[in-house]
Amino acid sequence: MIYEPVKANRYFTKTDLYSAIDWSDFNVVVTAFEERINNWYLEPATELANATGHYAFSIMAINCLLIDTFSQFAAGQLSSSASTFKSFVSKNLPNFNATLTATISHDDHSRKITLSTVADVVYHGFRCGILHQAHIPLYGGIVPGGAPFNEMASGQTIYSADGSACPTVSINPLQMLDDLKTYFADYICNLKNTAPQFDTLRNNFRLKFTDSFGISV
Description:
The chain has helices spanning 26-51, 56-75, 82-92, 118-133, 173-192, 199-213; strands at residues 99-107, 112-117, 140-142, 149-158, 165-171. It is built from six helices and five strands. Helix 1 runs antiparallel to helix 5 (173-192). It is elongated.
């Protein structure tokens, strides 16, 4: 924990100050956390999805933010990592847990990485591309409908070094958003379930929550 909030002056959700929350009651804290995620991530993404498919890029950006935070809370990690992000996608988003038919050579000017799974593409292409450049590398695409993802062996992208075909993977952000909603609803229920099998999940939540929000729970 590095920072602590001035509880009377900061909002934890769009309607409740930190001072309005009973931090000694774990279930109350979890409910407040659920409301926070809904207020500022899931509800805006849903509004965009309901408006037009042309907002799919913005939905994908929110999806990547959600995967980053969900993966860290679930694993009890205090900061992001490629392995944590990819593991979350493969484990908790079954519609996107797949091995690519053909690998993709990812080059970000400082290193080359071979992408062999959809989780690899979501992290290096979509998450890092959107976060660092507000742009997805050309081996990635967005289609707001249809299958969760599609692979195209050729016809969309080529490697400039030799003109050979570069596989292209398109993602359906609306399907990913629905899957993240399902995961989050289950996650909240599991946090509140007192069965011992969820003790590690709760401990990881506490660790990440305290570091993020400056309050021990």
